[in-house]
């Protein structure tokens, strides 16, 4: 939640400035002989492209709420990580900027988790654009393993509206619920990444090729399910129920779906 506490904002700027090392004119980092660690205010203001007088007021908590442009310049000047930049924006009274796109690489620890659950439950990982990134052995057995060569073949919304996989996996009633959810989730993805060329192309493709998508899209629903119970057809074990929980990695915008099997019907 954005903060209005200018004192804490100023204290954070001072801590970040003190943690920085002056650059060596020959390149690299210079060991400072200064009595006070870190950069001078003038040096930070030069890096951020703002006046030293204004920067001084920010550190002292006497300046008006900084603009998003000023916050972005300060984050760049300090070389902040995504998490540190988000913290700076909140302290400055602004919501953190959204990432330009989801990360394309899954955390190694998450991949180890998937493999560790191979014999326990199906697990999948998809990103904020609804592209499937990974799934474990149990998920491959439940959901199938084949993908085409097209640009959208690993996208959940595309698969939902252009293949017959849902009817086999969920049955008629379950398929309809999933289609409704897929359109609602896709609308969220577009709202988070409004300038994403991939999502815009996918929207055009589905609009042109799927009457079912057009019908659901016209409903204008927005939503995201984080818990559900689904009746699904396993290719070798028949119909079974799964408790589904969805966990989110906000830094990478990755979504982990855990399918906990209930007792067989």
From TrEMBL:
<protein>
    <submittedName>
        <fullName>Helix-turn-helix transcriptional regulator</fullName>
    </submittedName>
</protein>
<dbReference type="InterPro" id="IPR001387">
    <property type="entry name" value="Cro/C1-type_HTH"/>
</dbReference>
<dbReference type="Pfam" id="PF13560">
    <property type="entry name" value="HTH_31"/>
</dbReference>
<feature type="domain" description="HTH cro/C1-type">
    <location>
        <begin position="38"/>
        <end position="85"/>
    </location>
</feature>
<dbReference type="InterPro" id="IPR041413">
    <property type="entry name" value="MLTR_LBD"/>
</dbReference>
<feature type="region of interest" description="Disordered">
    <location>
        <begin position="1"/>
        <end position="37"/>
    </location>
</feature>
<dbReference type="InterPro" id="IPR010982">
    <property type="entry name" value="Lambda_DNA-bd_dom_sf"/>
</dbReference>
<dbReference type="Pfam" id="PF17765">
    <property type="entry name" value="MLTR_LBD"/>
</dbReference>
